[in-house]
Design goal:
459 residues, alpha/beta, Rossmann fold, 3 domains, five-stranded parallel sheet, three-stranded antiparallel sheet, 49% helix
């Protein structure tokens, strides 16, 4: 039975010497170099000659803000492109952080571009701001479409704000983000058609067209072509669907040459199940069992329409997968002992790590936070793995809304469960609110930030 495979010992991966890959320094140099080129092309366009009056200063500043904003938007596309070398160089969590900060910065620059250009032109033309804006929208080619693109990008950024996104269904969030590509396309047409720094400057035109073409190529290759090619190569398909409990289902996925995926415990894939009604959606799910080169296992809780529909997926359904992604792996360890903290369905990558993370008896402790006994997933598997690995296992049960449960996983409680807490690497995975609370608790308990490895479970 496939459910018994979860308790089979998985041989540890051999470590091979690898050639030097892309590093954070390489990325910083590439980013900064292009940033300097963008500013250089603005300067070569004669913008400094417009600084003798306030209208010219605002207009030149607006053009620079627009160029920098356009550049950061293209960087945003690359951060979304799931480029393996980029993800390996900095890790998924850091890429997610960069994506969030870069997107807000780009939007701020583009809004500044629109505002400074409008005010600068109004001062130069001696018109009121509303009349100048109307003139720009109705007489300048591409300005109206660029404004629509800016509104689309603004909607994407608003949807990405954590407090808003947690209230949106994943499907809604996913579709909203598709508008970012529309916004970029509209901005490109405006930039090339009416950009002051492109008229009569073939070098600038070639440079910017190359940036747009390269970003589009990366998106098509890594988000479209690569998953399709991998689907044909590995022939992934669902081979079993097992109900684990109320609203929780496990899917075993088989294929060929799965060892070449080089997946590790703690990582996740973006899975696309080719059913009639859900083939267009790809969702991230962590592996809930150490990969053995023959199967992938995921365990999903029905938290939305897509995850709920997986209980109805039939064996034989073809699957496309992007990944593996994430640095939530044993490779992040720096200390001999590790503490693994899971909340709810966040136990899935923790269970996989418990299965094959290096360490002897006493080196690993697992703390599993759940509302009640019926919410615990993999109880038998966890008990068996903890016994076999010599790991301590604590089930922490209680509703956080109950005053009696407020101190659960607080600093004192964690130190009681794990007396040598500050001497361990700590892996945390769970719903965003729970993960944030645990990280704050660890800081209050004196655990250095560098020892905390957290999976962005809210992705």
């Amino acid at each position: 039975m496939l459910e018994r495979m979860a308790s089979v010992a998985i041989p540890r991966h051999r470590v091979h010497a690898r050639a030097r890959g892309l590093t954070g320094f390489d990325l910083a140099a590439l980013f900064t170099g292009n940033l300097v080129l963008v500013a250089g092309l603005w300067w070569r366009g004669g913008e400094l000659s417009n600084l003798h009056q306030i209208g010219g200063v605002l207009t030149s500043g607006g053009r620079l803000a627009g160029l920098l904003g356009a550049y950061l938007i293209l960087v945003q596309v690359l951060l979304l492109a799931r480029i393996p070398a980029l993800e390996r160089a900095v890790g998924f969590e850091r890429l997610t952080f960069w994506h969030r900060v870069n997107g807000r910065t780009a939007l701020g620059l583009l809004i500044a571009h629109a505002a400074l250009i409008s005010i600068g032109y109004a001062l130069t033309d001696r018109l009121s701001l509303p009349r100048e804006v109307w003139s720009l929208l109705t007489t300048f080619p591409g300005v109206l479409t660029a404004t629509a693109g800016l509104l689309a990008l603004s909607g994407v950024v608003v949807a990405s704000v954590v407090i808003v996104r947690r209230r949106l269904r994943y499907e809604t969030w996913y579709f909203v983000h598709l508008y970012s590509y529309l916004g970029i396309a509209l901005a490109f047409s405006h930039q090339i058609a009416t950009g002051h720094d492109f008229a009569g400057n073939p070098v600038a035109q070639v440079y910017w067209k190359s940036l747009y073409a390269g970003s589009l190529a990366a998106l098509v290759v890594f988000r479209v072509a690569a998953p399709i090619a991998r689907g044909f190569y590995h022939r992934l398909q669902v081979i079993d669907v097992i109900a684990e409990g109320p609203g929780v289902v496990t899917l075993w996925i088989g294929g060929r040459r799965l060892d070449r995926l080089a997946a590790r415990s703690g990582q996740f894939f973006l899975f696309r199940f080719l059913t009639r009604d859900r083939w267009w959606e790809a969702h991230p799910y962590s592996l809930s069992c150490a990969p053995d080169g023959r199967h992938l296992r995921i365990t999903v809780k029905a938290l939305g329409d897509f995850s709920a529909s997986l209980a109805r997926v039939r064996p034989g359904t073809r699957v496309l997968a992007e990944g593996p992604f994430g640095s939530f792996t044993a490779a992040a360890r720096r200390r001999r002992r590790a503490l693994l903290i899971a909340g709810g369905v966040g136990i899935t990558p923790i269970r996989a790590l418990l299965q094959d993370m290096p360490g002897g008896p006493g080196d690993m402790t697992v703390v599993y936070r759940a509302v009640g006994e019926r919410d615990v997933i993999f109880r038998e598997e966890l008990d068996e793995l903890a016994s076999r690995r010599g790991a301590e296992l604590h089930y922490v049960l209680g509703d956080h809304r109950d005053p009696a449960a407020r101190e659960l996983l607080g600093p004192a409680h964690l130190r009681h469960l794990v007396p040598d807490l500050r001497a361990r690497d700590v892996f945390v995975c769970g719903p965003p609110a729970m993960a944030d609370a645990v990280r704050r608790t660890l800081r209050r308990a004196g655990v250095p930030r560098r020892q905390v490895i957290c999976e962005g479970f809210g992705y």
